[in-house]
TrEMBL record:
A Pfam family of this chain: TMEM33_Pom33
Record GO cellular component, one term: membrane
Protein origin, superkingdom: Eukaryota
Keywords of the record: Membrane, Transmembrane, Transmembrane helix
Transmembrane feature ranges: 24-42, 54-73, 93-118, 185-200
Name of the protein this chain belongs to: LAFE_0H11914g1_1
Keyword GTP-binding attributed: no
Membrane topology note: Multi-pass membrane protein
InterPro entries, per the entry: PER33/POM33_regulator, TMEM33/Pom33
Length: 262
């Protein structure tokens, strides 16, 4: 009994020590995201309800809290000064800004997907790196740590691809809603299109996803049964997108800058 009580006290003491950190506050934000989104999906029956609207907003409150903590750590409390432009183009700031957009506009379920994916992997990483070894004192060779580590390693790239795919699907829906004049749809379409443009410039996963979509659409449009008018519209659309691609919002990549200097 004495040994068990001592172990419990040690675990509690370790947990309280971890719970005082800002990283734990960041972790709690991801827990809120996962819990509220799981409850949202498990009880979803279609349509709109006050309960699901509340869960949706709570999920985004968790997102805002977790991203705010990391931005505070990386920029506001850092001794290294960040220029306003670099701050605005930081991935965490971008995703925080989009989360504020979603929480302030009518509910759109698909927007939850990338945040849930991010939170799942952040949750597992924190579990593996902090909670299990520091609070529950599991060794590096324990089966639980090995399984979690293996899952994260094997699925990290897949998770980024899933996120990029869901973001592109969301863009299509947002643009369609704008064309149908949903409430506040045009401001959402403009802001989210800029977000996707910056993500395309910065993320190899987004570029890969866009390329896959382009190849798939090229194959569909090139089919002999597709009307020539449709093919012309598609080619004009691609031409316009390429013209927009010349305007780089995120600035030149490091490789491009180095090439210019050489």
């Amino acid at each position: 009994m004495s040994a068990n009580r001592s172990a419990q006290q040690s675990t509690l003491s370790s947990f309280l020590e971890v719970a005082r950190t800002s990283q734990f506050a960041w972790f709690i934000g991801h827990v809120v995201v996962l819990f509220s989104s799981a409850l949202y999906l498990l009880t979803f029956r279609g349509g709109s309800s006050g309960f699901h609207n509340t869960l949706y907003r709570v999920m985004y409150l968790g997102v805002i809290e977790s991203f705010s903590v990391i931005i505070d750590q990386q920029h506001l409390r850092s001794t290294n000064k960040t220029s306003p432009r670099d701050l605005l183009l930081d991935d965490n700031v971008l995703y925080l800004g989009v989360a504020l957009l979603w929480i302030a506009t009518p509910r759109l379920t698909i927007t939850m997907v990338p945040y849930v994916v991010f939170s799942l992997f952040h949750f597992l990483t924190y579990l593996k790196s902090v909670l299990l070894p520091q609070v529950f004192h599991l060794s590096e060779n324990s089966k639980i740590l090995t399984l979690v580590d293996s899952f994260v390693r094997q699925n990290n790239d897949k998770s980024m691809n899933w996120s990029s795919f869901s973001e592109l699907c969301c863009l299509i829906i947002v643009l369609l809603r704008a064309l149908l004049w949903y409430p506040r749809s045009w401001i959402v379409a403009i802001i989210y299109s800029v977000f996707i443009k910056v993500r395309y410039e910065k993320s190899p996963y987004m570029k890969s996803c866009v390329k896959k979509w382009e190849v798939r659409l090229d194959g569909l449009v090139s089919h002999p049964k597709v009307f020539p008018q449709v093919k012309n519209i598609y080619m004009q659309f691609k031409s316009n997108i390429r013209q927009l691609g010349k305007y780089n919002l995120a600035g030149p990549s490091p490789a491009t800058s180095a090439a210019k200097q050489n």
